[in-house]
Amino acid sequence: xxxxxxxxxxxxxxxxxxxxxxxxxxxxxxxxxxxxxxxxxxxxxxxxxxxxxxxxxxxxxxxxxxxxxxxxxxxxxxxxxxxxxxxxxxxxxxxxxxxxxxxxxxxxxxxxxxxxxxxxxxxxxxxxxxxxxxxxxxxxxxxxxxxxxxxxxxxxxxxxxxxxxxxxxxxxxxxxxxxxxxxxxxxxxxxxxxxxxxxxxxxxxxxxxxxxxxxxxxxxxxxxxxxxxxxxxxxxxxxxxxxxxxxxxxxxxxxxxxxxxxxxxxxxxxxxxxxxxxxxxxxxxxxxxxxxxxxxxxxxxxxxxxxxxxxxxxxxxxxxxxxxxxxxxxxxxxxxxxxxxxxxxxxxxxxxxxxxxxxxxxxxxxxxxxxxxxxxxxxxxxxxxxxxxxxxxxxxxxxxxxxxxxxxxxxxxxxxxxxxxxxxxx
Length: 426
Known about the structure:
Helix 2 crosses helix 5. This protein has 2 domains: 18-78 and 148-423, L-arginine/glycine Amidinotransferase, Chain A, CATH 3.75.10.10; 79-145, no CATH class. The protein has helices at residues 49-66, 72-80, 83-95, 101-112, 116-125, 134-138, 176-189, 199-205, 236-250, 286-289, 316-322, 337-345, 366-374, 388-392, 405-409, and strands spanning 18-23, 68-71, 127-128, 143-145, 158-161, 164-167, 195-198, 218-222, 225-230, 254-260, 274-278, 281-284, 297-302, 309-313, 328-331, 352-355, 358-362, 378-381, 398-402, 419-423. It is globular and about 65 Å long. It is an alpha/beta fold. Helix 1 links the parallel strand 1 and strand 2 (68-71). It has a 5-stranded mixed sheet with strand order 8-9-10-13-14. Strands 16-17-19-18 form a 4-stranded mixed sheet, with helices on both faces. Belongs to the arginine deiminase family. This is arginine deiminase. Keywords: Hydrolase. InterPro entries: Arg_deiminase.
C-alpha cells in the first residue's frame, strides 16, 4: 500500500535541487567491527561510534535544512507493519546467514516474535547469538543475524532513476541484507512498478551469474545518459541486465558510458574518481580521468528494435565530448600529485551536490577545497549561521564543509552516505 508521506522518485540528474533524500544515522552496528573482522566487514580499521555519530549529526542537520531527510530505519519499521513484508524480510535475511535446519527455524521464530520496530533494529544492528546447544555455545559467531556496519553508506544498496528505483546487487555478502531492506521498503511503501530493476533478485534467481551493481558506480548524467563504473563492485553482466530493465520500462533510446576502473581499494566505485558539480563541471581524480593512465570508457547506445552500438574511448571526458556533453574538470587535491593521492584516498572526489554548483565536502580535503575556491566556489563551514535553504535556492556556487575524519575512515564520502530520491528538473 502506498503511503502518502513516502516520496515518489523523480531523479533525472546528479545535480538538480535536492528535495528528498534517504539516509541512515550510524548506530551500534558500527561497533560490531573489530580488528579481526574489519577486513571481512570492508573496513580499513575500526572507528569510534561516538565520534562517527557526532560528525554525522552535523551532516544530517544540514541536509534537513535544505531537503526532506528520511531515515531508512523508520521506513523499514513502517514497511514491516505489513504482514507480507515481515514474512518476506525474515525469510530473506535468515537465508543470507546460511544456517542449518534447526538453527534456521530457531532464528526465524525469534525474529517473528519481534515488533516491527524491534525487527527493524535487528535487521540493521544484528541479533545476538542465542546458545541453545553445545554447537551454538562453542561457535565463535557473535550474532544469529549479522549487523550491517556499512549501512550508513546508503548510496550503494539502491538508486533512484527517473520515476523508478534500482535495487543494488551487492558485491559482498556482508552487505547483501542492505539490499533486502531496500526491497522491503520500496516494494511495500511505494507503487508496485517503482522497482524496475533488482540486482538482488537476479542474484537469487541466477546465483551462478556475476551480477554486481552498487550505487557508487551509478551516475545519472541526464534522463537518457547513464555513467556506470565497471569495478570491484559492479560487473558488465549487471549493467546489461540493468539496461534491459530500463529499456523495457521507458522504451526510449539510452546511452551508457561504462568506465573500466582499476581493481584497487582506492577506486572501489566510480564516484571515488568522478562526480558532477553542475551540468558542465566535474570534480575528478586526474590520474585516472584525464591523465596518461586514465580509465578507458565504452559508449553503448541502445534503442528498441535495433542492435546496440559500442564505441571505445581513451577516457570518460573523451566519450562525453563525443556526445556533446563535454565537462570542465576540477582536480581533487589540486595540481600536486602528492595531495591528489592523499585526498582521493580520503574521498576527495566523493562530494554530494544538493543543487547545481552546490556541494557538501569533507573539511579535511584542504587542497581540493582550495581548487574549488579558485574556480569561484564560496566555502562555508557547516557550523556557520547561514540561511541554508535560501542559499540552496540561489545561483551562488557553494562548498559546505563538514567534519568527517572518522566517517571517511569508514571507507566513503558524502555521496556514499546519501540516497537522493527527488531532485527538481534542470
